[in-house]
Amino acid sequence: MKLWQKGNAAHQKVDQFTVGSDREYDLLLAAYDCEASSAHAQMLAKIGLLTQKEADLLSTALSQLQEKAINGSLVIEEEFEDMHSKIEHVLTEQLGDLGKKIHTARSRNDQVLVAMHLYLKDELCSIKKTVFQLFDLLMQLAEQHQKGLLPGYTHLQVAMPSSFGMWFSAYAESLIDDVHFLNTAYTLADQNPLGSAAGFGSSFPIDREFTTAQLNFSTLKVNAVAAQMSRGKVEKTTAIALSMVGSTLAKFAMDICLYMGQDFNFISFPDDLTTGSSIMPHKKNPDIFELIRGKCNALQALPTQLTLLTTNLPSGYHRELQLAKGPIIDGIQELKACLDMLLFSLPKIEVTPNITDQKKYDYLFSVDTLNAKVQDGMPFRDAYRELGNAIEAGNYQPNRSVAHTHLGSIGNLGLDAIQKKMDALR
Question: pTM of whole model > 0.70?
């Protein structure tokens, strides 16, 4: 069944090519289509195109279908092009001609738009909630390990003393930036496109403010053409937010992979969180963190993929927009899986004590030694040359006591200030 079909069927090859994987993805969106269809039915009753009894019958049937979609028992068979045709077919089977009235004053264009907006709102809230949980965990680890020194690197060369507290809380604060992007994506998704129909509105006297309130949107995408143009744009904005979180997680996962290496040995995890080698019995591979790194790096390509898909499209609907559905849904599921795995594994991280006591980290403290000379009155450039000559001659003796006091340093992490920044976004 195809909602656009007037008589002759499309060739089977055309059908397979144009439908693609839509049925699979629509199983995740069908509950939202039912929710929006119910609000639409109630609106049709409000303006007199349905009786209230008819609208209630439709809403009841749609609620039952929505429950099936949520619990995974809804099936979209091959004879149906998408969730819209399946849902309308079921309504017609159950309610006769009344089921055929549900499509009055709308198009599949605004149907899929509103379903996607509702889906993205829920998923962005879910991701943000998980990001908050990861933030809290990182802050707990920062508090727990704030005094454990950790070598800091620039250019992968030993540079200056850092700490596990600084490392954990750095990624916690980075997540705050990412939440701003998630909030922006949510703001764009939180605009109701229903009622824009095929992208040019309707001659029916529909009440779009009514469906906006019914579906808990903060506002309406007012212009019907602008509503249609949001397709692809709202997915791309969400992809940018996903990529920002992914960037933070990928860098963190890379640090973990590096720090777990035998040449570093800064951290470790229990055996049940690592994998082995088929021929090297000593190996404890950080596979889960390598996969997080890879998946999140791939997520950073998602905005570009959606940009290339939509970059030269004029206003109005074009079939390419269907291709935005799969990548954004897959990207959301991948990011959620990565966040979940970090929340599962990080509480079991094992931090190596007294790392910087090793002789190979003597030069970590050269800048502190230099700064001490400056504080004693020596001009900085003279102190720099004197210490450089001492290092060159092999006469440098490190002072491993550190006294960093400014806000955001290893001696004053500013965890309360970081916490307040995130609390303002909750």
Answer: yes
| Domain co-membership, 54 together with 137 | no
Residue 188 sits in the same domain as residue 67: no
Triad 393, 398, 403: Cα angle to 5°? 145
Please state the three-class secondary structure of the chain as a single string: CCCCCCCCCCCHHHHHHHHCCHHHHHHHHHHHHHHHHHHHHHHHHHCCCCCHHHHHHHHHHHHHHHHHHHHCCCCCCCCCCCHHHHHHHHHHHHHCHHHHHHHCCCCHHHHHHHHHHHHHHHHHHHHHHHHHHHHHHHHHHHHHCCCCEEEEEECCEEEEEEEHHHHHHHHHHHHHHHHHHHHHHHHHHCEECCCCCCCCCCCCCCCHHHHHHHCCCCEECCCHHHHHHCCCHHHHHHHHHHHHHHHHHHHHHHHHHHHHCCCCCCEECCHHHCECCCCCCCCCECHHHHHHHHHHHHHCCHHHHHHHHHCCCCCCCCHHHHHHHHHHHHHHHHHHHHHHHHHHHHHHCEECCCHHHCHHHHHHHHHHHHHHHHHCCCCHHHHHHHHHHHHHHCCCCCCCCCCCCCCCECCECCHHHHHHHHHCCC
Averaged pLDDT score across all residues of the chain: 92
Which domain, by its residues, includes 315?
116-141+167-172+180-194+222-355
What confidence tens digit (pLDDT) does each residue in 115-162 have?
999 999 999 999 999 999 999 999 999 999 999 999 999 999 999 999
* 127, 332 contact by CB (below 8 A): yes
26 and 93 belong to one structural domain? yes
